[in-house]
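Hi F.,

I've been meaning to write this up properly since the lab meeting, where we talked about keeping a consistent format for the predictions we share between groups. The idea is simple: the sequence comes first, exactly as it goes in, then the structure tokens exactly as they come out, then a line or two of notes. No screenshots and no reformatting. I'm using this chain as the first example so we have something concrete to point to.
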Amino acid sequence: MKQLVRVQEPSAHFEQWVAKARSGDRLLLVLDPERYLDLGDELQVGGQTWRVYHYAENDLAFRAAYGSGPADPNLCHIVWVTPSPFQRALSPQINLGFIPDVLRRAGQILNLSLEGLLKALRPREVFPSAGLREYSPILSSHLETLLDGYDELRLRIGFQRSLDIHHVRALAIHCLQPGIPIRDLLFERADVRAVLRQYLQLAWSGKFEGRTLALLQEHAAESPPISVDALRPWFQAPPDELALLVYLYRVLRSYRVPNPLNQLRGLGLLTIDPTPLESHLDSAMALWEDEVLGPELLQRAERVLDPEPLADLTALLPFPNLATIGQALQRETAPALTYGLAERFLALALAEDAFEDIGVDVLSAGTGLVDVGTPYTDRAQAALAVIREIAFILNHLCSSFTSTSDLARLVDQYVESGVYRLELACALAEEHIKKLASAELRLGLQAYLKQLRQRTWAYQDQLDAQLAKLVTQDYDAFLGHPRLSIRVLRDTILAPKFRPTQERCVWIVVFDGMRWDSWREYILPALLEHFEIVDEGKAYLSLLPSFTRVARTGLLAGSAPPGWRAADGRHTSNEVILMARLFDLDAAEQDQWLRIEVHSETGTYQQRRLGGAFDRRPINTLVYNISDDWIHTFQGNLAALNGLVAQQVQNAVDDLRRYVHEDDLVVVTSDHGFAELDPEARISVGDKDLGDQEVGGPTSKRVFYRYLVNLEHPDGVRVPFHGEDFYSVAQGRAWFHREKGRFSRYSHGGLSMGEMVVPGLTMRCIVEPCVKLTLSGLPRRLEVTEKEPQTINLILRNVGNRGTEYTLTFSTNTEPEGVTYRGTIRPHEAQELVYTFTPAYSPQATDRLMVNVTYLDVDGREGRMPVRVASVKTEPRQDVVEIDFGGLDQLDEL
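Output, unedited:
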């Protein structure tokens, strides 16, 4: 349909009309019942001046100004007629009974009423007068939206069909909610379930409330081409209460709670009577699986679900033991119910002292929890994290660490088994417990976690003692061990014969003070966002004492302190000179080839040191103090500490992204880590032990938390340095305490796994991003016995260089719904996914197990791995007799 005039406002239409007035017209009459215009005493249009007289049933004032007409009969003037300000509040009508002379003399009359405007703007359309009158206040206030909606409406219904009041009502709703297309407001389906679905989709969109919601409810009840009287209770109830009803009904039905509606009435969670809604509850419940409606339903329901009755709801669900609750947690998607179940799980485990029975497979691959923001999302994630971390801790505490006389094997076990994150797991559980709602549960879990922390420290002390034994039994062999950190640069650069040039640089990135839990859980994931691993390298042990002056210098020198010598043979700790010797550079080449930037701690400092035209050299060393000196005054737990580390590492990532080129090689390592000290494990050192000399001289004596300088102590391990200088280092979590000294929660320089285990690997820029998943562990054939639970453990790996979100579903032919896991997996990460099922033999045998995996590729599109299938041979149990009661219903007919 051709649009004659395109307006942004009625005033534009008015001005265009005035501009087209005939030359002989001296009086123009403008009827403006909606008061679109705001005119002054004069109007300039197209070079013509028009005098304006305003009439609003103010007869005396109007006649005083206008009389029977202007004194100059040739004066071009406009009489602007609006309703009385008192009348307009009731109805936008105007009374022309007192100005008949004006009507007779008017050259042209412009009707700026809604009907007049629509007739002018859409001259071929007939709008139903009843609809325009009823919804005029809405339509006239949104003229542009009305016209856009009308054009869309005509394209939708065609040009032959007459408009009715339902169309006008849809336009009115569209004017109030222009973001909702007209097509979504037309109730055209002759199916009650479709009408209900369409209404709920609109009502749960979050865009309707108050006046707009009332209009939508009227529209849904009156517009469909079929009778929807059975749905009127749905149209009358608040949308939030409808969402809560469907949510609760779905919960009770899913968990096979008998008489769900009676149970809902007993719970008192609803403000509406569910009885009139019962006949269509199943149809509404099906919307839970809808990709759009499901999350909207869930968000609305949990927004009005009170925390206190949630425990009453979960108490109705039939879970006889921890295992069944754990299975439910693996399947549940709703945050509130997940939180309620997790809280019940934790409370039951505490009450029965049954945490040891949780097992490593509990929630090992996450849950079905959907990623939507509700008031319960954070709590649900926190409760699940508490369960996971406790299960992780117990699994490692209950599995003995293999004793070994091989130092490399000890280090590999430490990192590969995950023992390195035991202390962090305790800290994370501590943080997540704080987010739980029940004060009683929080106190119980905190007391239990305190026990776990003590057991974790005792376990860690055993590992540190074994490390100390292997290091001290032959210290010279330790200094020559191939897994000492002085081998990092040789293994990553020199041995592979990487030849750095100005165009193909090597970047040696040293994270000063980085221990292995920070590395694996926070720093490596940040690097993998932009860099991929060339060689995963291995874990190394730092030099002793494990503090910067020794550990970092030895790392960059590629040798222990006895080998720190300049070209003339003199002992030196100058890192540039020592690196030059390692890379066989003479003094002339040293400045041209080597660059060391140290202490790039903060964004501001880093911008100053590395910003602008950075002088790339063939060998660049960047040292980032992410958790070194500042930890001595930090009093938070390891979770809080690593939170700060995660923030600071972004500075390093930004630097590397800015300056590392595609052909460059990046070596990532650390000089040392740190230990969390035991307040009760202090080793007293008195002033008399220091002697007369504390500072100055070749053999000055000094006391630090984790080591002594040139001071023997029976509780310390003697470590030679150079010449007559030596150190005594503390083992495990012990620390040296000087009179009037204070306790520091974290420190480094001693002999422990946390302080000494450091990474050494090579990376490069990601040139071709890719997501590549592999799945292993599924047997081709299973032989099982009916009703005997079976457990399948699969390993999902991401061998690509980009992280991704995935959905993995286990199912059998007898349990097609199966279990779905949703999660994220980082590059070079492996996750174990556990599925437990019970084979059936009668009436249908379990004969196959299917695994489906979908994921998002680098462009955000869905990818799908080939379906993996294992055949299952199910044998019947001889001690089970199956009785078929089929056909008993036919006895009623006899």
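Notes:
Confidence is low (pLDDT under 50) at residues 1-8, 601-609, 693-698, 888-894.
The first helix runs from residue 10 to 19.

If this format works for you, I'll send the rest the same way.

G.
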